[in-house]
């Protein structure tokens, strides 16, 4: 069987993802300025196409792509651990399933369905930072997951553990932390104004940066553990080696 090797430049991946995220955030903010300050709320559909606060558009699918890519990479690490009879392979597979769900949720906004019933449970009225009620079960789930993975995290190489925690802080700092801030702002002023859109852009920016950092972290871990990403197409084996 013939074999072809391709190298993945980690810094190149990081720069490419950072550039795309920056362009998407700038495009979204320019669209909101056009809509709110100049009354041009479409501009040939580009405002909606790049609005990070809407669904089924370019930022949504890019975020989902990064999360699904992270799921694939985590599954590759898990398979490598299992093949080499290393401990903790199951944790990698659970991580892969979690990233896959987050990618699914990014497109279909499953978490938003928890908002109305949670508002009822919380008594309605002024909920402050809990205005978007889904953040309550969201925080509970994050705490449970953190406890589940705690021992696993401390068994990881120091560099991998640090980057993994950093990516998680960025991602959940956006989808939970900034969601609470933007919810409080919207409850106070009830306006889809420029400041509200700045807050939601920061929120989505943190989420996307967290997902990009996660991809870098997983590729770096694969590189440090000398794990090769192999695919077989016909009679040719393609091997991708992060460097």
From TrEMBL:
The keyword Transmembrane helix applies. It comes from the Bacteria. Keywords: Membrane, Transmembrane, Transmembrane helix. The chain crosses the membrane at residues 12-33, 58-78, 90-108, 128-150, 162-182. This is Uncharacterized protein.
